[in-house]
Design a protein that fits this description.
The chain is about 30% helix and about 25% strand.
Length: about 170
């Protein structure tokens, strides 16, 4: 994502049914789904045509719901949230789960790191553009050190919240 110690402009939303439905409506199917629970989209609709990466981060300790493959999680969650957005548990595969046990939140940032100065984006400019695209204001925005966040997540073996790490950096 970025070079060591480099800070990347980013925006973050905590997971809600509204965030899931807005992603489905405005971005459609993810370009990729990962075993760790992440879902990603790449769109060139950022400020000045900058390529943006939208990433749903997995909940801490995530495991794929029984009876689903990583590639079926997105459509299963969207269908369940669309049917019952306020449900405490969503029917996913062979089990019921709260939405927050699947994803922790959404992050959007320029897909190219800060080393690409021709693609530089100011955090406030990014916040304004992505809020316009998604129709929902982010919970936080600013500059983050993705390397430090990735290292903390790896050290915890996926048991820590990436979204909490992001928001902690953005609000400290």
């Amino acid at each position: 994502m970025s070079s060591a110690g480099a800070r990347t402009p980013t925006t973050v939303w905590r997971i809600t049914p509204d965030v899931v439905l807005a992603l489905a409506e405005h971005l459609g199917e993810p370009v990729d789904s990962y075993v760790n629970g992440s879902q990603t989209w790449f769109e060139d609709h950022g400020p000045g045509g900058v390529m943006l990466e939208w990433r749903l981060h997995p909940a801490p300790g995530y495991g794929t719901p029984a009876g689903l493959s990583p590639y079926e999680v997105w459509e299963s969650v969207v269908a369940a949230v669309d049917r019952s957005p306020l449900a405490a548990e969503l029917p996913l595969g062979e089990e019921g789960r709260p939405l927050a046990s699947v994803w922790d939140g959404l992050e959007c940032f320029p897909a190219h790191g800060p080393e690409d100065r021709d693609q530089a984006v100011e955090p406030a400019e990014l916040r304004s553009r992505v809020a316009q695209i998604l129709g929902i204001e982010p919970d936080a925005f600013g500059l983050v050190d993705h390397d430090a966040i990735g290292a903390a997540w790896e050290e915890s073996r996926g048991r820590t919240s990436i979204v909490t790490l992001l928001i902690d950096q953005l609000t400290s």
